[in-house]
Amino acid sequence: MSKYVNDLGTRLFHSVANRAGDLGEKFEEEFSYLAQNVTRDVTVIVDEAVSLSPYIKVGLVCASIFLVLLSIRLLAYGIRALVNKRRRHMWMNCEYSEHTPPIILMLPTDDGTYSQSRMLSEPESRRLLKGLHSADGQKTALLTQLQTTDKHLHNVLSNV
């Protein structure tokens, strides 16, 4: 009986080994077929890329030139905006280190002549200049500046 079991075990082992060999051969065939298909597809893609290579290069060069020009334009716009902001800030908050020339106000009257001229001192000139450039508007700034200095000019400006 032991011989019978040994023969059965040997036959079973040979059968399993043969089956495994057949499966291994089929796997090897399928894997090589898959590898050949992948290689063929990659070769086709590479051939198309190589044939389109000059067009791709031209497209990339055009795109890079466009991006460089766009970045230069945006950079110039940003620098211009910063410079203008700085100028406005300096103009509104500047303190004059040199003597400010006085402002002479001469307003026309109804008969075509000019009213008596009024010369403003340096602090009044500064207040008037800052008032002219404020967001309140020119007429309001002039009226508030002149209310305290000259009633006649105030009356003329309020009628305008």
TrEMBL record:
Which regions span the lipid bilayer? 58-83
Superkingdom of origin organism: Eukaryota
UniProt entry keywords in alphabetical sequence: Membrane, Transmembrane, Transmembrane helix
Q: What is this protein called?
A: Uncharacterized protein
